[in-house]
Amino acid sequence: MAHWVLVNLDAYFRRIDYRGDTQPTLATLHALSAAHTIAIPFENLDVLCGTGVDLAPDAVFGKLVDARRGGYCFEHNTLFLRVLEALGFTVAPLSARVRLGRAREYTPARTHVFLRVELDGESWLADVGVGGLSLTCALRLDATGEQATPHEPRRIVREDGRLYHQARYTDEWFDVCEFTLEEMPPIDREVGNWYTSAHPGSHFRSRLTVARGLPDGGRVAILNRDLTVRRRGVVAETRTFATRAELLDALAEYFGLHFPAGTDFPCPALDWPGA
Question: Burial of 105 by CB count in 10 Å (0-12 exposed, 13-18 middle, 19+ buried)?
Fold first, then answer.
């Protein structure tokens, strides 16, 4: 049975507030990438709460769309893959290693998935699930120079048989992820998802992270107790939460994530004063 039979596109479009064209074109791919990244937050709250991450198609759709929650790469790009397939795009999931904040000498686990989309003889990189740097448009995979996006400039760099997706901010280029164009079949995604959500060494087990794009080209993110709001062309503003209640208020205000008063996210990095 084709994947698209299981996708309620109308519900997805309502979730991301999308009213544009749905033909499988580059313009549609760009527009959906932006709308998805702005509307659905990247977050690891279920990992911290110990409820696990279910990659079954209905579970992903139920969480990110019906329950209006967020998720991490395996959830975001699983949903986006199925939506693009339903619209008639030719798309495949590829594996990658996330390199944000990591030196080239260090080899991170291959626990990231993004999408390759084929359009009119060209390959495009789509990734709505790479945290605070999730793409708001697709990137041309065979291009070598800087590529503009509604947010940060990006580029694809080829070195020693590997490709690096890079972003430029604070006037420097930073690695986002490393890949080889190897596809990531469902079993590899399940294994990567298990490691990311359950292995004691996964950084998603030790810190709280939430992020989404802003329509003005900025970003908003929470890392543990710190909220950072970055507007295009404006110095980022950061404030630190003093209480769990302030964190819950910010999750609701900036990300549409609503939790009952007193909800706790067990995390070594959340060192609350007086706790």
Answer: exposed
Q: Residue 265 corresponds to which amino acid?
A: F
Strand-by-strand arrangement of the 209-213 sheet:
42-43, 209-213, 219-223, 226-230, 237-240
Report d(CA 72, CA 89) in Å as an integer: 22
**Model confidence pLDDT, tens digit, residues 185-198:** 999 999 999 999 99
CATH 3.30.70.20 fits 3-255, yes or no: no
DSSP 28-82: HHHHHHHHHHHHS-EE-HHHHHT-----SHHHHHIIIIIS---B-HHHHHHHHHH
Q: Is 137 a catalytic residue?
A: no
DSSP state of 218: -
Per-residue pLDDT tens for 40-91? 999 999 999 999 999 999 999 999 999 999 999 999 999 999 999 999 999 9
Determine which one of 76, 112, 151, 165 is catalytic.
112
Determine which one of 36, 46, 73, 76 is catalytic.
73
Active site residue 112: yes
Angular region, 156: left φ>0, alpha ψ -120 to 50, beta rest: beta
Task: Find the catalytic residue in 36, 46, 76, 127.
Answer: 127
